Amino acid sequence: MDGSRxxxxxxxxxxxxxxxxxxxxxxxxCHIGPCPAGRPFxxxxxxxxxxxxxxxxxxxxxxxxxxxxxxxxxxxxxxxVRPAGGPAAPACHEADDHLAAYRDAIxxxxxxFDATLWGSREAQLLRFDVLADLVDLGGxxxxxxxxxxGDLAAxxxxxxxxxxxxxxxxxxxxxxxxxxxxxxxxxxxxTGDPLADPGLLDVDADMAYFSGTLNTLDDEAARRLVLAxxxxxxxxxxxxxxxxxxxxxxxGRRLDxxxxxDVADWVAxxxxxxxxxxxxxxxxxxxxxxxxxxxxxx
Length: 298
Description:
Elements: H1 9-16, H2 100-109, H3 121-134, E1 141-145, H4 151-158, E2 165-170, H5 173-181, E3 187-191, E4 205-210, H6 219-230, E5 233-242, H7 263-273, E6 276-280, E7 288-294
Parallel strand pairs: 1-2, 1-4, 2-3, 4-5
Antiparallel strand pairs: 5-7, 6-7
């Protein structure tokens, strides 16, 4: 990603015309059927919330003390893991309760991967690959809504995807400072909650990505946020969420602080915006779903 080669919107439109409609991975059909009972699981509690682990499963009845929390293969490099007997977590803001679990995680672990509350780096990268494979991002300007510590920007760079520009937005300043400290070329960072201030999304982006960003939102708030980004991008949006049609292997698992969304409702909502919709939920046995929503005639 080379920020010095930022193209104007006209040049990006011309480049885009040769890429749209040519996804790298063919979307699979949406299967609408009975939803298996139960919820996927979590690991180890932080004031009632726990990291979501997509691959290393264990029964929800298996408890773990806060001092035994080991998301993924251990604390992220540079994360300051605080002992269970440490100071109480800071009070949460009532106006943005969807951020409460993440504030608690930052207080406990410090900014970085562990504070995203995902327990598996492998599953995080798999989600990123699904997002990136649905549209050729080369030469496009991307806004990453809920960017956390900048892991998506780093992964796209590792894959050799040459963006015209990248803007990461996150409501938690600790995460943004951590992302900035990584020194990723061609990136810009903004602190703020676009759910409360949609103007943060006015960054002249072609595409908006959301990975894990919707997990703690209700349906109305999640759709309002995605729609705000949709209206501010020239090409469209791509987002993932935990779906309500998972394989039975996910049954009986807790999910807090995240929640499942109705897959059929989200697909129908997307089709209400445009005819150009792609959908996948094959990559984690239905535990996760990704929807690409492109503007008609773009």
